[in-house]
Write a structure and sequence with these properties.
7-stranded mixed beta sheet; alpha/beta; Rossmann fold
Length: about 180
C-alpha cells in the first residue's frame, strides 16, 4: 500500500489518496488528518507521500501526525515530505533578497531575478507574494492557511523524535523536500 496524504487535486495512480476534503472524485479516503488514529493498519504501507500538507496542520499536532505515519509504515517504509522552507524564507528576508522581479510562479527559467533590477541588482531569490505564502499559505479557500512552519532543524527534530532515520534533504530554492525511512 502507498499513501498520498493531503492529496487535494494531485491524485496519484497506485496510491490511496487521502485528504480532509473530497476533491471532485480525486480523494479515495476522506479523513481529517488531525484525528488519530488514521484508518490504516500498523506496519502496512510501503510509502507515504505528504506534499504541501503538513504546514496546514497545527504545530501542536505535528508529532501526532508523524507518529501516525511511523505507525502505518512497514519497517524500512519510505516517507517523503515537502513543505515550504521557512528557514530559507527568513534568510532571504535577512539578506534583502525578496523582490518583485523574481517570478511568483516558476516557468522554465525558474525563480530567477532580473539582472537589470535596480531594487535587488539581480540578487533576488523570492517574490514577495511567494515569500508571504511560505508563512501564511495561499488562502484560496478556508483550509488553505498555514498553521505550522518548518526549517531543516525543525523538520529534522520532529522526524527524529517520531523515530525516522536516514533523513535526507533535497535541494530546492523554496521548499524543504525530505526523504526518510522507518
Amino acid at each position: 500500500m502507498k499513501l498520498n496524504v493531503g492529496s487535494a487535486w494531485d491524485k496519484i495512480d497506485g496510491f490511496t489518496n487521502i485528504d480532509g476534503l473530497d476533491w471532485d472524485g480525486n480523494t479515495d479516503v476522506i479523513h481529517d488528518l488531525n484525528i488519530t488514529p488514521y484508518p490504516f493498519y500498523d506496519n502496512n504501507a510501503d510509502e507515504i507521500r505528504c506534499v504541501e500538507t503538513l504546514e496546514h496542520i497545527s504545530w501542536r499536532n505535528t508529532a501526532k501526525v508523524l507518529g501516525e505515519f511511523y505507525r502505518i509504515l512497514r519497517p524500512d517504509g519510505k516517507l517523503f515530505i515537502q513543505v515550504p522552507d521557512c528557514g530559507k524564507a527568513m534568510e532571504y528576508y535577512f539578506r534583502k533578497e525578496i523582490c518583485t522581479c523574481v517570478p511568483h510562479k516558476a516557468d522554465k527559467g525558474g525563480f530567477v531575478a532580473d539582472d537589470d533590477c535596480l531594487k535587488c541588482m539581480g540578487r533576488g531569490k523570492i517574490n514577495p507574494v511567494r515569500w508571504m505564502m511560505s508563512f501564511n499559505g495561499a488562502q484560496k479557500h478556508k483550509f488553505d492557511a498555514h498553521l505550522n512552519i518548518f526549517t531543516k532543524d525543525i523538520m529534522t527534530r520532529e522526524l527524529v523524535q517520531a523515530g525516522f532515520k536516514n533523513i535526507e534533504f533535497g535541494e530546492d530554492i523554496n521548499k524543504l523536500k525530505v526523504n526518510c525511512i522507518k
